[in-house]
Design brief:
Blueprint: E1 4-10, E2 14-20, E3 26-33, E4 45-46, H1 48-66, E5 73-80, E6 84-88, E7 106-107, H2 115-124, H3 127-130, H4 141-151, H5 153-158, E8 159-164, H6 165-174, H7 181-187, H8 200-205, H9 211-215, E9 227-230, H10 233-239, E10 246-248, E11 251-252, H11 253-262, E12 271-276, E13 280-286, E14 296-300, E15 308-314, H12 318-328, H13 336-353, E16 362-364, E17 382-384, H14 392-415, E18 425-429, H15 436-446, E19 449-452, H16 458-471, H17 477-484, E20 489-491, H18 495-519
Parallel strand pairs: 1-5, 5-10, 5-11, 12-18, 18-19
Antiparallel strand pairs: 1-2, 2-3, 4-7, 6-7, 6-8, 9-10, 12-13, 13-15, 14-15, 16-17, 19-20
Helix pairs in contact: 2-4, 11-16, 12-14, 13-14, 14-15, 14-18, 15-18, 16-17
């Protein structure tokens, strides 16, 4: 056995790789950008060949930084956004772009072209809709597949392999078509707790009776932590690894993060994991299925075998902050440097004026619909309290109050997730974990302590745990999580700031009420 595993995390804008040892320490890391094609506010596509190229470069860069030989890598794991990759029976890419450019073969997770199909699917009802909170998001794969079949029958009829992005990566690495129970259950409406997975009636009514043939799905999905094969010779050459390297079952990125944040202690009744990045997902484990309207799940085995998980969240969180800079930044772009500059200035302005900075501005953050608690992809965001001030400081005020709205939205979600008692500790991972001001707002607005352990690299660590299990380092995935979990720093809520945010929460709820009233005005 070697001493290391490779974890790959493909997000909205980049592919990252990390080299981990048996204690969960990351020895090397590299990241490369991936392209996105945006032809409208509702459509977004990737090029899977561009993604694979970024993955191979990231793995090579991480291994170079760690100084680890190829033969010392026992396994590789992949997590990715729930994007949809379409290939023909020979594995060649098929176009899914609105302009038919052949290189764009992957519908990005945030693409909302299938809103009508999602609503049609939700109206069918049944067990699968029940396990999606009573509504279906256009970010899920079945609505996208329905759109593809009805709007691009030429592509559908040529398809022979359709993958969740993480499963595409394991196929590209191992050559095997085995899918993951994580991707299929959370994004394909597959009922992992039943023998048949999909009911024939459900697929028939969705018009996808030939899904298995077009997607190339021939067997039962593999559990998280399972080995689905070893690297093919071409993949090993591309990645700079050995053909003895095992390939772990794929994971959706947020669920890999949940594995890192709370997988070492799923039985805790007072903890939840929050993965905050372009979007945000908050999850809780349970031994019994728990149903909450407009929350995704409950899903069994999607993270840990024999455990149910339920998820709430918001489609645009980091993406909302990017949008604030684009729309109000007088030509600034939402680069990491710009975000750092804005946050530094906000800290200075708060020091000068107090925590009431920007208090006349109130935001509803639903600029790309609402996942929880509304389950409405069509609902719109709002900003109240703007003036003609177009200065940098004025943009900072809007940005800060948008962060406040994200924290208030998380309070609303957590108040509905108390099926096993109240959440007392919110484990924060992803890009939001490096934003100390936002982390503090999460603590104060929700009155929960915020614990930061794996931080920005939560997805990489969870995927490393998955790979460690596939490598056979530990008797089970749960034991891999316990051995590799990182210690946490805890941010307690400040009661004085929490009381001030109570007023903002009342305004937040009132704005939601007024939005409903306005929607009914003819």
């Amino acid at each position: 056995m070697g001493r290391y595993v490779v974890a790959v995390d493909v997000g909205t804008g980049s592919a990252r790789a990390g080299i981990f040892d048996r204690r969960g320490e990351m020895l090397g890391r590299a990241s490369f950008p991936i392209e996105m094609n945006r032809t409208s506010g509702q459509s977004a596509e990737h090029d899977s060949e561009d993604i694979w190229s970024a993955v191979t470069r990231a793995v090579a860069g991480a291994r170079d930084e760690a100084g680890v030989a190829a033969g010392e890598i026992d396994a590789i794991g992949f997590d990715a956004t729930c994007s949809l990759t379409v290939r023909d029976a020979e594995g060649r890419p098929l176009p899914v772009s609105q302009n038919d450019d052949p290189r764009w073969d992957t519908i990005a997770w945030l693409d909302h072209r299938a809103v009508e199909q999602a609503e049609e699917l939700a109206a069918l009802g049944g067990e699968m809709v029940k396990h999606s909170g009573g509504s279906i998001s256009p970010e899920m794969q079945i609505p996208k597949l329905m759109w593809l079949k009805s709007h691009r029958p030429d592509v559908w009829n040529r398809a022979g392999m359709i993958f969740d992005l993480a499963d595409f990566l394991t196929w590209r690495a191992s050559g095997g078509l085995t899918r993951s129970v994580c991707t299929m259950t959370t994004k394909w409406n597959y009922l992992s707790h039943t023998e048949e997975g999909w009911t024939r009636d459900f697929l028939d009514r969705a018009g996808l009776d030939d899904l298995g043939t077009r997607a190339g799905i021939t067997d039962i999905p593999a559990q998280v932590g399972a080995c689905v094969g070893t690297l093919t010779a071409p993949a090993a050459r591309s990645l700079g690894l050995s053909t003895n390297c095992k390939v772990a079952s794929g994971m959706v990125d947020a669920y890999a993060g949940q594995l890192a944040l709370t997988g070492s202690n799923p039985a805790s009744r007072n903890e939840a994991g929050l993965i905050g990045g372009t979007s945000s997902c908050v999850m809780r484990f349970s031994k019994e299925p728990q149903f909450i309207k407009s929350f995704w799940g409950p899903y069994r085995d999607a993270v840990l075998p024999d455990w149910w998980v339920i998820e709430g969240g918001q489609s645009a969180t980091g993406a909302l902050l990017d949008h604030i800079i684009r729309a109000h930044g007088a030509g600034l772009g939402p680069t990491p440097e710009t975000h750092d500059l804005v946050l530094e200035r906000i800290q200075d302005l708060i020091a000068e004026t107090g925590d009431s900075f920007g208090g006349s501005i109130h935001v509803l953050p639903d600029f790309h619909g609402n996942r929880s608690p509304l389950g409405d992809a069509r609902v719109l965001g709002a900003i109240h309290g703007l003036t003609l001030d177009s200065s940098f400081d004025a943009m900072c005020a809007i940005y800060y109050r948008a962060m406040v709205s994200l924290a208030l939205g998380m309070r609303q979600i957590l108040e509905l997730m108390e099926f096993d008692g109240p959440v007392e500790t919110l484990h924060l991972g992803g890009g939001h974990a490096r934003n100390t001001l936002l982390a503090r707002l999460y603590a104060d607005a929700t009155r929960r302590q915020v614990a930061i352990s794996a931080g920005e690299e939560a997805m990489l660590l969870g995927t490393a745990m998955n790979a460690a299990s596939a490598a056979g380092w530990y008797p089970s995935l749960a034991e891999a999580c316990q051995a590799m979990a990182r210690p946490a720093n805890v941010i307690p809520p400040n009661e004085i700031r929490a009381m001030a945010l109570d007023r903002d929460y009342r305004v937040f709820l009132k704005m939601q009420e007024q939005r409903r009233e306005l929607a009914g005005v003819v």
